[in-house]
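PROTEIN FOLDING TASK:
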Amino acid sequence: MSFHRKIFLTLAFSIVGISIVFIVLTHFTVKSAIEAGIEETRGQEVTYIHRKLTTYYVENNDSWNNVQHLDLLQDITQDHPEILVMDRNNHVILQKGDSPRQLVQHLGIKSELKISNKKVGQFIYYDPKMASFTKIMIGIPISVVFILSISGSLLISISLFIAYQLSKWLASPLRDFLPVINRLGKGELGIKVSVKTKDEYGKIANAFNHMSQELEQAEVVCRNLTADVAHELRTPLTIISGNLDYLQQKGEMIRPETLLPLQDELIRLNQLVEDLRILSLAEAGKLKLNKTSTNMLDLVYQLISALKPIAEEKSISMRVDVQTTDITVSVDPNRMKQVFLNLLTNAIRYTPNQGIIYIRLFKEEHHYLKIILEDTGIGIEPEHLPHLFDRFYRTDDARTRYSGGTGLGLAIAKQYVLSHDGKIEVKSILNQGTSFIIQLPYSCETH
């Protein structure tokens, strides 16, 4: 069953059900009010007769014998009053008046006779004025039900029409979604549905369009990753294969120094495979971390000492700015050392001679230690920033695998930080410098 039909049937049943309940309740309410009104008009007379009959029954040893001689209407002031008395088996034992019995039973006021909560009989009081009033009162509920039925039918018809149009309107966006969803399911990534409203349907459409775009980008990244991995593997394999062919064709004794280029390529190949393995583990949340309480300032100074010779070759100075005394966090020091080593190496590579690299430590709100690595280098163009942490992404097409690495360093650095429940972001201004901001929680769970 379609969504449109489900909505319509739900609304239709609700409308019809509510209408029927309203009509029935109105009928019983009006009927009860009329019965109360009739009882009120002759309440004294009915009470008087009731008292005389029950008294007679008790005084006559719980019997209706000779009740015909009892004058029940002598003190009734109404014109031409009549009465019909019946025993517990509804047999008529007393009737006073000339009106047909059926008329009296239909238009009279009925009252049960009970002794100690046990029915011993009943009587019906009747007079012409009350009969006329009763006829009017009986006609009112019938008229009310008739009017409500006619007006209710009209209102139900209008409501059903509105419900049909409403259900059709509510389901119309889904009819627009379904073909697009089917096309996406068939592999047409990046397809979008038109956004016509700003309500919940509009939000769903925007979310779908965003998902479709993300799937398209993910597919592109996947294809690029496959191509990049193939390229990175092909280069050292080609070099190794070419050198081995040359050595075989030469047919001479192989000198040890001749094997050094082959060993370098094998080392590069092994490093690439290891980087990909580590990156896959980190992204899957299965990277093993050996966390200890680590003084991040000591870690920074260790890296500065290790990289100082490289920085001095370009007359680059590295300065540390500490603005908090709370510099100890629970991290895997070896993993975090790789993160900062990668970022500092890049900073040195892209900072011109006599530049400056700043390393700042702050205590961020929400229990985070913020570490900023800021350089005065060439900066990064804005279009590259969203992809800087992607695998094999290089901002400069001229960079080769020899000068720029495999392009996995920043991707691994990001995953290491995320594995520590941390955050990493980059900000850069072209020709002014780049800042990497890392936030590490003071206490985080081991992954």
Notes: The chain has nine helices and eleven strands. The first strand starts at residue 82 and ends at 87. The CA atoms of residues 41 and 110 lie 13 Å apart.
